[in-house]
Write a structure and sequence with these properties.
Largest sheet: 7 strands, parallel
Organism: Pseudomonas antarctica
Number of helices: 19
Number of domains: 3
Protein name: Group 1 glycosyl transferase
Keywords: Transferase
GO molecular function: transferase activity
Radius of gyration: 23 Å
Oligomer: single chain
Number of strands: 12
Helix content: 40-55%
Strand order of the largest sheet: 3-2-1-4-5-6-7
CATH superfamily of the largest domain: Glycogen Phosphorylase B
Length: about 475
């Protein structure tokens, strides 16, 4: 463990103020979420902080829960698969469940999620102990709690551990971020798997509950389209969309050679990357300089424009080295031709069989391979709505644990150590997390800078200055409104 992480964890355990310890544990979790140091859970810390919180919180009498199920999410989003998965699962219950949101969230995102649940509550408390007490009060009436927490959400884990001790509620943990560190190993009665990568990563955790395969359900209805094989003189559109970090080259995993081959051999083609930053994602610059307008990078587009671009795509290419979960399979079900490189993070869908292990095979696939019906059938068996619903209901209501089916469909070729960093920290830590850490104790600034690579030192310094200016403007605006 690096000196920074060791120092933070020691202070969490040593601080006399329980609120401060829990607050710092979430900063610690956020850093481990961002930086792969080979640490993927910390059940011991969960146990220690739960015991400390239990000792200072008012005693809550136990009683038999009267309601069936509530889902708990740290923060819903308007975009991305995290919230979509929760919404899909909410429709699979025998009766409509309730929802608890534990962090302040975008109002539009909250309003969207309300339509999927019978009752929606947002936690209003402003300190860790008050939040824990409010969450416990909200959860104690339910016999089943389904967790969709952010990896750093220690507050929700502590609250759920307390609820379990007083009501005997069953906790079902949906491991959305199965490729990174996350709290929750000590609280879940059932730890749901959604991929092969997650199953293998979990072998490095200390999980106290049972494991059960869930899978990510597709939201698209199957559309069947026939496609002619392309020629090298055709005007083709290749399209890929994801968060910037999913495209960033790591070790020898790099999408750029494949893009270069496409643009070189299909001389009238265009390759679109949506979600990247053309200014700060500097790894794209050589391709942009070489191919100009035929290589298009967009940080974001309005949703309607995004759909138009997608409709014009001849090929959908999954992000790499980090894939888009079931986004690839979704495009397959929408009738698009799908190609890609087999990523080190893998096993979310049998659609991985449409991806190739080398750039040469990737090019051959574009020219000669069609979407096979047998692949669509296997995707339905793993990711079809009814298949996921059957596993989910069997586990929730009948106690049936389901084996992970993915490796029966797709042979494992992944790399669970793909993002692990042995030396200096080269991955970006969110500036808001760094700011919280420094606000907690200024001495962490020097420790952090010792751990960072030269590039990250510059980036963090710039972002901290911008964050400070933003906070200052906010204070001035509030003062002006008084």
């Amino acid at each position: 463990m690096s000196g920074l992480l060791s120092s933070i964890r020691d202070m969490i355990l040593a601080h006399e103020d329980v609120d401060k310890s829990v607050e710092l544990s979430e900063v610690y979790g956020a850093i481990l979420w961002a930086v792969d140091k080979g640490i993927y859970d910390d059940p011991e810390l969960e146990e220690i902080l739960t015991a400390r919180c239990t000792n200072v919180l008012p005693k809550i009498s136990g009683h038999t829960p009267l309601k069936d199920c509530i889902h708990l999410i740290s923060e819903p989003y308007l975009i991305g698969g995290h919230t979509r998965l929760m919404e899909q699962l909410s429709t699979m219950h025998r009766e409509k469940p309730d929802l608890l949101i534990t962090r302040q969230s975008d109002e539009k995102a909250v309003e969207r999620t309300r339509g999927f649940f019978d009752k929606c509550t947002v936690i209003a408390a402003d300190t860790p102990l008050k939040k824990i007490a409010e969450i416990v009060e909200s959860l104690k009436s339910y016999s089943r709690i389904v967790l969709h927490i952010h990896p750093d959400d220690m507050i929700s884990v502590i609250a759920c551990k307390i609820v379990k001790s007083i009501t005997g509620a069953k906790i079902f943990f949906v491991n959305h971020a199965d490729h990174v560190f996350t709290y929750g190993s000590s609280v879940a009665d059932v730890y749901f798997e959604i991929s092969t990568f997650g199953r293998r990563r979990d072998m490095k955790k200390t999980i106290t509950g049972c494991k059960s395969f869930l899978g990510i359900p597709l939201t698209s209805a199957l559309v069947t389209k026939s496609h002619g094989l392309p020629g090298k003189n055709d005007r083709l559109n290749f399209f890929s969309a994801a968060s910037p970090f999913k495209f960033k080259p790591v070790k020898h995993y790099d999408l750029r050679p494949a893009i270069g081959r496409v643009l070189s051999e299909f001389k009238h083609s265009t390759f679109w990357i949506v979600g990247a930053s053309p200014l700060t994602n500097i790894w794209w610059w050589p391709l942009k300089l070489r191919y100009g307008s035929r290589f298009k990078i967009l940080s974001s587009v309005p949703y309607e424009s995004y759909l138009k671009l997608l409709d014009s795509a001849d090929f959908y290419v999954d992000s790499y080295p980090t894939p888009g979960g079931t986004a690839f399979a979704e495009q397959l079900f929408k009738g698009r031709r799908c190609v890609g490189l087999r990523a080190p993070i893998q096993g979310y869908s049998p659609a991985d069989n449409l991806k190739d292990g080398s750039v040469d095979d990737f090019m051959t696939s574009i020219l000669h391979r069609q979407n096979g019906s047998e692949i669509i059938e296997s995707v339905l068996a793993v990711n079809g709505y009814e298949a996921v619903k059957a596993r989910y209901q069997a586990c929730l209501y009948d106690g049936v644990m389901c084996a992970n089916e993915m490796e029966a469909y797709v042979a494992w070729t992944g790399d669970i150590a793909v993002y692990e960093q042995a030396g200096k920290i080269t991955t970006a830590i969110p500036p808001a997390v760094v700011s919280k850490l420094i606000d907690f104790d200024k001495r962490f600034l020097s420790i952090l800078f010792f751990e960072l690579s030269a590039t990250q030192k510059i980036k963090i310094a710039v972002k901290l200055v911008l964050l400070k200016l933003k906070k200052q403007r906010g204070k001035e605006n509030r003062s002006g409104n008084v």
